[in-house]
Specification:
The protein is elongated and about 45 Å long. The protein has one domain. Helix 1 packs across helix 2, helix 1 packs parallel to helix 3 and helix 3 packs antiparallel against helix 4. Helix content is about 75%, strand content about 0%. It starts with 9 loop residues before the first helix and ends with a helix. The chain binds zinc ion (ZN). The site of zinc ion has 6 residues, from helix 1 and helix 3.
Length: about 90
């Protein structure tokens, strides 16, 4: 059986990918995530999507006048909505 307890499932990996945006992963968490990503294209795509979203959110916050800027609360809200949309899409596969 190829199942290894040290390896993240896709569910755990996707959670770690979004956690990594909020906090620093522990070295073991980071290692296990990288191991999973090395083997799993679906989660690599997920990570890429997250980073695209993240840089989109950052550029939204950085351009325009003060009035156009999203507050940190708004960014967090948008990010968590997008995360849940992405996760639902993953679950549907
Ligand atoms: Zn995966």
């Amino acid at each position: 059986m190829a199942n290894s307890s040290w390896m993240y499932s896709c569910h755990e990996a996707s959670r770690m990918i979004s956690d990594a945006l909020e906090r620093h992963l522990a070295p073991t968490e980071w290692m296990r995530l990288r191991m999973h990503l090395a083997l799993c294209k679906m989660c690599r795509d997920y990570e890429q999507n997250i980073h695209v979203l993240e840089s989109t959110l950052n550029s939204l916050g950085n351009q325009g006048t003060q009035d156009d800027q999203l507050s940190d609360d708004e960014k967090t809200l948008i990010r968590s909505n997008l995360n849940s949309i992405l996760r639902d899409a993953d679950d549907a596969l």
